[in-house]
Amino acid sequence: MAKMWAGRFQKEENAQVNDFNSSISFDQRMYRDDIDGSIAHATMLGEQGIIAPEEAAEICRELGVIRTDLDEGRLEIDPAAEDIHMFIEAELTARLGDTGKRLHTARSRNDQVALDIRTNLRGEIPQIQGLLRDLTELLCRLAGEHTRTVMPGYTHLQRAQPITFGHHLMAYAQMFLRDCGRLSDCLKRMNISPLGSGALAGTTYPLNRERAAGLLGYDGVTQNSLDGVSDRDFCIELSSDLSILMMHLSRFSEEIILWCSWEFKFIELDDAFATGSSIMPQKKNPDIAELVRGKTGRVVGDLVALLTVMKGLPLAYNKDMQEDKEAVFDSVDTVKLCLRTFIPMLESMTVLKENMRAAAAKGFINATDCADYLVKKGLPFRDAYKAVGQLVALCIRRGEVLETLPLEEYRRICPAFAEDVYPAIDLEACVNGRRVTGGPAEESVRRQIEWVRQELVQFPQGAQEGGR
Q1: Which residue, 43, 196, 199, 426, shows the most beta carbons closer than 10 Å to its own?
Q2: Predicted pLDDT of residue 1
Q3: pTM of the predicted model as reported, rounded to 2 decimal places
């Protein structure tokens, strides 16, 4: 295929250089975005009288045919093409001759590719939000089923205070809700059209940039032509948001890996979402959760790659920026793959409530409540703290827990203790006494679930609700 820019050059491009320079292998996914942008551009050119209206109409019609041919497989993308923009323009020119050549009037590949990648990523964000909504709805449902499932809460991976499994799940619901919000913020800044910025300095043609942007559903146009073609903040911001999302998935995966180990045994993964060992027949490995945890590094690496590519570039466009697409597309694809696998894995797991409750009964996780009991009797908190610390040390020496320690031992350390200490340190009472907003009490967790569900309404529906 002859290069569109070949007029200046006396030699054919070296074959190896052509392969090195080509981006068709990864930017072909933008063919619909490129055609939509070209249709909007041609429409505007015709309306402005920059090209003949009948030629603009013919270009738009044929671009629609090319899109259909690509969608239905009648036209195959040429792997030898330099990029998707040149492939579509060459195909249009082959079909329409000189009329097709008029499409690129008042446009550069610099503003064209900046538009295409914005349009493509703009379409990906609602899909990711839909998956996040599916996941968060699932967490709300599971949390509602486990508002009374007592388990240990941890700090430093040491048993700390009693909570419920529902309360724990709703912590992740909050994280994924924030991820949805970040993606909406990113979309707001992304949805500005650079088309009309030209190579870097706009054009002398009387363009109506706002009209082309409106045809494409953009909220406005970029206000500086240099920035319009050199900006990739929207790629970096999206990749950053996806890195945070993956960090949340990775933390969740880490807990799932711990929980399904024999040392915890809080959950059991469905056989369909686990693998075995090639040598140890007893093994049931949480490979899906481990892969999600591992792929987090990949998405974070994509973010670092984008930042590194952009950090030293002078204005305006530089060929380095071709490296933006593989990184951001990989982030998008990896996140969608992880979410689509993680959701059914979580949905199909078995919660071992008895094991959670048994673990909560150990580790003195009601010690804070025991100290609070003394505070309510009039002791300063630090004195109460010291007394309960002495009780815990005594229990460890005697092989007991606070619930089984005789009252005389309590009173030997602090006379303020009475029979009512035992209901005060009951695990269910400890949990349900924490009714504060955000706490683990059943009524508090149910309020959290309702609040999250109300917040989710603003985001696109996911696959489970027919959103895509």
Answers
A1: 196
A2: 53
A3: 0.92
